[in-house]
Design brief:
The complex is a heterodimer of chains A (about 120) and B (about 110). With about 120 residues, chain A is mainly beta. Helix content of chain A is about 0%, strand content about 55%. In chain A, the strands form two sheets. In chain A, strands 2, 4, 5, 6, 9, 10 and 11 form a seven-stranded mixed beta sheet that branches. In chain A, strands 1-3-8-7 form a four-stranded antiparallel beta sheet, with no helix packed on it. In chain A, β9 (about 95-100) and β10 (about 110) form a beta hairpin. The radius of gyration of chain A is 14 Å and the shape is globular. With about 110 residues, chain B is mainly β. In chain B, the strands form two sheets. In chain B, strands 2, 4, 5, 6, 9, 10 and 11 form a seven-stranded mixed beta sheet that branches. A four-stranded antiparallel beta sheet of chain B has the order 1-3-8-7, with no helix packed on it. The chains are: A mainly beta (about 120), B mainly beta (about 110). At the A-B interface, β5 and β10 of A face β4, β5 and β10 of B.
Chain lengths: ~120, ~110
Protein backbone atom coordinates (compact mmCIF):
# COMPACT_ATOMS: atom_id res chain seq x y z
CA UNK A 1 0.00 0.00 0.00
CA UNK A 2 1.32 3.43 -0.95
CA UNK A 3 1.52 5.39 2.29
CA UNK A 4 2.95 8.44 4.01
CA UNK A 5 2.88 8.87 7.78
CA UNK A 6 3.71 12.13 9.51
CA UNK A 7 4.97 12.38 13.07
CA UNK A 8 6.46 14.92 15.41
CA UNK A 9 3.62 17.34 15.89
CA UNK A 10 2.75 18.79 19.26
CA UNK A 11 2.55 21.87 21.43
CA UNK A 12 5.42 24.35 21.35
CA UNK A 13 5.89 27.89 22.61
CA UNK A 14 6.46 30.84 20.35
CA UNK A 15 10.08 31.11 19.31
CA UNK A 16 10.59 27.39 19.71
CA UNK A 17 11.50 24.71 17.19
CA UNK A 18 9.92 21.48 16.06
CA UNK A 19 10.88 18.81 13.57
CA UNK A 20 8.24 16.88 11.67
CA UNK A 21 8.98 13.62 9.91
CA UNK A 22 7.29 11.89 7.00
CA UNK A 23 7.81 8.16 6.59
CA UNK A 24 7.08 6.56 3.23
CA UNK A 25 6.22 3.00 2.27
CA UNK A 26 4.86 1.11 -0.70
CA UNK A 27 6.67 3.04 -3.43
CA UNK A 28 10.16 3.97 -4.64
CA UNK A 29 10.81 6.95 -2.42
CA UNK A 30 13.80 8.34 -4.30
CA UNK A 31 11.65 8.83 -7.42
CA UNK A 32 9.07 10.99 -5.64
CA UNK A 33 9.20 14.63 -4.61
CA UNK A 34 7.92 15.47 -1.13
CA UNK A 35 5.80 18.52 -0.43
CA UNK A 36 4.71 19.90 2.90
CA UNK A 37 1.29 21.56 2.98
CA UNK A 38 -0.39 23.03 6.03
CA UNK A 39 -3.93 23.88 6.93
CA UNK A 40 -5.01 26.11 9.78
CA UNK A 41 -8.30 25.20 11.41
CA UNK A 42 -11.20 26.05 9.13
CA UNK A 43 -8.90 27.46 6.45
CA UNK A 44 -7.61 26.42 3.06
CA UNK A 45 -4.45 24.63 2.00
CA UNK A 46 -1.15 26.50 2.19
CA UNK A 47 1.98 25.20 0.53
CA UNK A 48 5.03 25.20 2.80
CA UNK A 49 7.68 23.88 0.44
CA UNK A 50 9.08 20.83 -1.27
CA UNK A 51 12.16 18.75 -1.82
CA UNK A 52 12.41 17.26 -5.25
CA UNK A 53 13.47 13.79 -6.21
CA UNK A 54 16.90 12.53 -7.16
CA UNK A 55 16.03 13.21 -10.81
CA UNK A 56 15.86 16.93 -10.00
CA UNK A 57 18.93 16.95 -7.80
CA UNK A 58 17.00 17.07 -4.51
CA UNK A 59 16.31 20.78 -5.05
CA UNK A 60 14.35 22.53 -2.31
CA UNK A 61 11.80 25.31 -2.74
CA UNK A 62 9.83 27.20 -0.12
CA UNK A 63 6.99 29.61 0.32
CA UNK A 64 8.61 33.03 0.41
CA UNK A 65 7.11 33.92 3.79
CA UNK A 66 8.66 30.82 5.39
CA UNK A 67 12.05 30.87 3.74
CA UNK A 68 14.82 30.92 6.32
CA UNK A 69 12.68 29.55 9.16
CA UNK A 70 11.65 26.20 7.66
CA UNK A 71 14.02 23.63 6.20
CA UNK A 72 13.06 20.48 4.30
CA UNK A 73 15.38 17.52 3.99
CA UNK A 74 15.15 13.88 2.99
CA UNK A 75 17.01 10.62 3.46
CA UNK A 76 16.40 8.16 0.66
CA UNK A 77 18.19 5.40 2.60
CA UNK A 78 15.43 5.46 5.24
CA UNK A 79 12.55 6.65 3.02
CA UNK A 80 11.90 9.66 5.20
CA UNK A 81 11.61 13.41 4.80
CA UNK A 82 11.78 16.03 7.50
CA UNK A 83 10.47 19.53 8.03
CA UNK A 84 12.53 21.51 10.52
CA UNK A 85 10.57 24.49 11.81
CA UNK A 86 12.36 27.23 13.71
CA UNK A 87 11.34 30.46 15.43
CA UNK A 88 7.75 29.31 15.46
CA UNK A 89 4.91 31.82 15.57
CA UNK A 90 1.29 31.42 16.58
CA UNK A 91 0.35 31.71 12.88
CA UNK A 92 2.24 28.45 12.26
CA UNK A 93 -0.46 26.57 14.17
CA UNK A 94 -1.96 24.11 11.69
CA UNK A 95 -2.25 20.53 10.55
CA UNK A 96 0.85 19.71 8.51
CA UNK A 97 0.60 17.22 5.67
CA UNK A 98 3.38 15.67 3.67
CA UNK A 99 2.53 14.58 0.15
CA UNK A 100 4.26 12.68 -2.63
CA UNK A 101 4.63 14.39 -5.98
CA UNK A 102 5.14 12.75 -9.36
CA UNK A 103 4.35 13.43 -12.97
CA UNK A 104 5.86 14.99 -16.04
CA UNK A 105 5.17 17.48 -17.41
CA UNK A 106 2.17 17.87 -15.14
CA UNK A 107 3.27 17.38 -11.55
CA UNK A 108 0.69 16.38 -8.98
CA UNK A 109 0.48 15.18 -5.37
CA UNK A 110 -0.82 11.65 -5.63
CA UNK A 111 -0.37 10.44 -2.06
CA UNK A 112 -0.89 12.31 1.20
CA UNK A 113 -0.29 11.52 4.83
CA UNK A 114 -3.05 11.93 7.39
CA UNK A 115 -1.36 14.97 8.88
CA UNK A 116 0.17 15.95 12.18
CA UNK A 117 -1.01 18.84 14.32
CA UNK A 118 1.29 21.65 15.39
CA UNK A 119 0.10 24.10 18.02
CA UNK A 120 2.20 27.16 18.78
CA UNK A 121 1.24 28.88 21.99
CA UNK A 122 2.33 32.18 23.44
CA UNK B 1 2.95 34.46 -7.98
CA UNK B 2 0.00 32.81 -9.69
CA UNK B 3 -3.26 33.38 -7.85
CA UNK B 4 -5.99 30.75 -8.08
CA UNK B 5 -9.59 31.85 -7.60
CA UNK B 6 -12.38 29.33 -7.13
CA UNK B 7 -16.08 29.94 -7.38
CA UNK B 8 -18.40 29.53 -5.74
CA UNK B 9 -16.86 29.31 -2.29
CA UNK B 10 -19.74 27.09 -1.27
CA UNK B 11 -22.80 25.54 -2.83
CA UNK B 12 -25.77 23.47 -1.78
CA UNK B 13 -26.89 20.62 -3.99
CA UNK B 14 -28.98 17.47 -3.90
CA UNK B 15 -28.01 13.89 -4.59
CA UNK B 16 -28.17 13.36 -8.33
CA UNK B 17 -27.49 16.98 -9.23
CA UNK B 18 -24.87 18.02 -11.77
CA UNK B 19 -22.34 20.27 -10.05
CA UNK B 20 -19.72 22.50 -11.65
CA UNK B 21 -16.92 24.30 -9.82
CA UNK B 22 -14.74 26.85 -11.56
CA UNK B 23 -11.11 27.81 -11.00
CA UNK B 24 -9.40 30.79 -12.59
CA UNK B 25 -5.68 31.43 -12.70
CA UNK B 26 -4.22 34.93 -12.64
CA UNK B 27 -1.80 33.99 -15.44
CA UNK B 28 -1.84 31.43 -18.22
CA UNK B 29 -0.96 28.01 -16.82
CA UNK B 30 -1.66 25.82 -19.85
CA UNK B 31 -3.06 22.59 -18.40
CA UNK B 32 -0.96 22.55 -15.22
CA UNK B 33 -4.00 22.28 -13.00
CA UNK B 34 -4.93 19.66 -10.42
CA UNK B 35 -8.09 19.08 -8.41
CA UNK B 36 -8.31 17.61 -4.92
CA UNK B 37 -11.18 16.53 -2.71
CA UNK B 38 -10.97 16.94 1.04
CA UNK B 39 -13.48 15.46 3.43
CA UNK B 40 -13.87 16.87 6.92
CA UNK B 41 -10.95 15.96 9.14
CA UNK B 42 -9.15 14.07 6.37
CA UNK B 43 -6.22 14.70 4.07
CA UNK B 44 -6.80 15.91 0.53
CA UNK B 45 -7.23 13.28 -2.17
CA UNK B 46 -6.17 13.73 -5.80
CA UNK B 47 -9.06 13.65 -8.27
CA UNK B 48 -7.72 15.07 -11.52
CA UNK B 49 -4.33 16.13 -12.83
CA UNK B 50 -3.25 17.87 -15.99
CA UNK B 51 -6.64 19.61 -16.03
CA UNK B 52 -8.55 16.59 -17.32
CA UNK B 53 -6.84 13.27 -16.49
CA UNK B 54 -8.76 11.24 -13.96
CA UNK B 55 -6.58 9.78 -11.20
CA UNK B 56 -6.75 6.00 -10.96
CA UNK B 57 -9.62 4.84 -8.78
CA UNK B 58 -11.60 8.08 -8.99
CA UNK B 59 -15.19 7.57 -10.15
CA UNK B 60 -15.96 8.57 -13.72
CA UNK B 61 -18.68 11.00 -12.59
CA UNK B 62 -15.82 13.41 -11.92
CA UNK B 63 -14.40 15.27 -14.89
CA UNK B 64 -12.17 18.25 -15.47
CA UNK B 65 -11.73 20.60 -18.36
CA UNK B 66 -10.07 23.84 -19.31
CA UNK B 67 -6.78 25.33 -20.36
CA UNK B 68 -5.03 28.65 -20.05
CA UNK B 69 -6.68 30.49 -17.19
CA UNK B 70 -10.14 28.93 -16.89
CA UNK B 71 -10.88 25.46 -15.55
CA UNK B 72 -13.88 23.51 -14.36
CA UNK B 73 -14.50 20.45 -12.22
CA UNK B 74 -17.81 18.74 -12.88
CA UNK B 75 -19.58 16.05 -10.90
CA UNK B 76 -22.15 14.60 -13.26
CA UNK B 77 -24.44 13.09 -10.63
CA UNK B 78 -23.67 14.06 -7.06
CA UNK B 79 -23.45 11.16 -4.63
CA UNK B 80 -23.67 11.26 -0.82
CA UNK B 81 -19.93 10.59 -0.51
CA UNK B 82 -19.12 13.63 -2.68
CA UNK B 83 -20.06 16.16 -0.05
CA UNK B 84 -16.66 17.67 0.69
CA UNK B 85 -14.43 20.64 -0.07
CA UNK B 86 -12.70 20.81 -3.43
CA UNK B 87 -9.44 22.62 -4.17
CA UNK B 88 -7.69 23.45 -7.40
CA UNK B 89 -3.90 23.78 -7.52
CA UNK B 90 -1.48 25.02 -10.16
CA UNK B 91 1.85 23.40 -10.90
CA UNK B 92 2.89 25.68 -13.76
CA UNK B 93 5.06 28.07 -11.80
CA UNK B 94 6.68 26.89 -8.57
CA UNK B 95 7.60 28.41 -6.21
CA UNK B 96 5.14 29.04 -4.97
CA UNK B 97 2.77 26.17 -5.58
CA UNK B 98 -0.67 27.71 -5.07
CA UNK B 99 -4.13 26.45 -4.25
CA UNK B 100 -7.53 27.91 -4.81
CA UNK B 101 -9.48 28.91 -1.74
CA UNK B 102 -11.74 25.88 -1.90
CA UNK B 103 -15.37 25.13 -2.71
CA UNK B 104 -17.47 23.47 -0.05
CA UNK B 105 -20.21 21.26 -1.45
CA UNK B 106 -23.04 20.83 1.04
CA UNK B 107 -26.29 18.92 1.13
CA UNK B 108 -29.38 20.89 0.16
Amino acid sequence: EVQLVESGGGLVQTGGSLKLSCAASGFTFRDVGINWVRQASGKGLEWVGRIRSQTYGYATEYAESLKGRFIISRDDSTDTADLQMNTLETDDTAVYYCSGEIGYPFEYMYVWGKGTTVTVSS
Amino acid sequence: DIQMTQSPSSLSASVGDRVTITCRASHIISRYLNWYQQKSGKAPNLLIYGASTLQSGVPSRFSGSGSGTYFTLTISSLQPEDFATYFCQQSFSIPPLTFGGGTKVEIK
